[in-house]
Amino acid sequence: AADETVAAKARELTAGTKTELERIQAIARYVQSLQYISIQIGVGRFRPHSAAEVLAKRYGDCKDKANLMRALLKAVGIEAYPVLIYSGDPTYVREEWASPSQFNHCIVAVRVSDATQTATVINHPKLGRLLIFDATDPNTPVGDLPTHEQNSFALVAAGDSGTLLRMPATPPEANQLERQADVSLAADGSITASVRENAFGQSAAAYRGEFKHFSRPEYQQLIEGWVTSGATGAKVTKVEPTDDNAVGRFALDVEFNAANYGQLMQDRLLIFKPVIVSRRERVFLTEKARKHPVVLDSYSYTETVKVKLPAGFDVDELPDPVKLDAPFGTYAATYAVKDGQLQFTRTLVQHAATIPVEQYATVRSFFEHIRAAEQAPVVLARK
């Protein structure tokens, strides 16, 4: 029977799992792996195909995937509900006049016990704790939610218990990007560098999406372009990505060398920028005026750059440390010199926020100060 086929698949997927969360994760990974195909003919625009049919054909659209996931979870004793949402703009659905035509996407709310703890659990007035998950997005695992769905109003379709609820918003630390750069600077201005990144949450989802979208040669070219935009003429010798989707982490190891990175002037001064590679998630906001609000995503970033200074040189000038505080975020940049090594650290914490046009000058100034700090050079002088 069709129901038994679905139940058997659920048992197969969850074999060996020990917790409620592990069972949800196992089923979620499988549903995410199915091909997304949307064929909207007749009632197919509104009604999902049966779970058994989606399981057999191994493809479906968002509502098909949500329906299959609900059926698989039900087979292992976990209740779940479809959630209607607008994908693309968290401010699109208005609480005061929500209507069916405002929704364009279907995700899942999984009823969970207190034992399941993730940043994407919300409380429903009747149903209790609900874990929100998008079974269509292949880059965002259980415990996370695509940025463009966070903090939006969505309809939990649960019969008489159905209600419009605000979706969870993950904190900046859940979307952390950590970077460590070790650089050796020679007396002629050339550098040899290794960079290691660890991205989590939606930072990892973005990097994972890049990695999956491009062929390996194209991905190599993308990373090379990123490196050479900061270190002109750099030769990239290693690009090693590691995708740990199960825990929402994406790591990247890059090694490169570049001649003439530092500028040698009059054979006495050596000038270089500690910020060698950019933050790929940079907010620009360079226009003088703006017609629409600024929407900032929840994000945090920390980088430590350690530069081994060339023998025969001392630090002559260091940029001033920078500390910025605003309602929507904080930024800091510091410098230290010890035992022939310069250590530069920068951190950014950016909160999810919609900044009205009237406050544009404030947010623009914040990011202008960051850009200026990240262009500041260090000056070395020959002993």
What topology emerges from the helices and strands here?
Elements: H1 2-14, H2 20-33, E1 35-36, H3 51-57, E2 59-60, H4 62-75, E3 80-85, E4 105-111, E5 121-124, E6 128-133, E7 153-156, E8 163-166, E9 176-185, E10 191-200, H5 201-213, H6 216-230, E11 235-244, E12 249-258, E13 263-265, E14 269-272, E15 294-296, E16 299-308, E17 313-317, E18 322-326, E19 329-338, E20 341-350, E21 353-355, H7 360-374, E22 378-382
Parallel strand pairs: 1-2, 9-16
Antiparallel strand pairs: 3-4, 3-7, 4-6, 5-6, 7-8, 9-10, 10-12, 11-12, 13-14, 14-22, 15-21, 16-20, 17-22, 18-19, 19-20
Helix pairs in contact: 1-3, 1-4, 2-4, 3-4
Structure description:
The chain has helices spanning 2-14, 20-33, 51-57, 62-75, 201-213, 216-230, 360-374, and strands at residues 35-36, 59-60, 80-85, 105-111, 121-124, 128-133, 153-156, 163-166, 176-185, 191-200, 235-244, 249-258, 263-265, 269-272, 294-296, 299-308, 313-317, 322-326, 329-338, 341-350, 353-355, 378-382. The protein has an eight-stranded mixed sheet with strand order 11-12-10-9-16-20-19-18, with helices on one face. Strands 5-6-4-3-7-8 form a six-stranded antiparallel sheet, with helices on one face. A four-stranded antiparallel sheet has the order 13-14-22-17, with no helix packed on it. It folds into two domains: 2-169, C8orf32 fold; 173-382, Jelly Rolls, CATH 2.60.120.1130. The radius of gyration is 25 Å and the shape is elongated. It contains seven helices and 22 strands. Helix 1 (2-14) packs across helix 3 (51-57) and helix 3 crosses helix 4 (62-75). The chain is α+β, with helices and mostly antiparallel strands and 383 residues long. A hairpin with a 4-residue loop joins strand 11 and strand 12 (249-258). 24% of the residues lie in helices and 35% in strands.
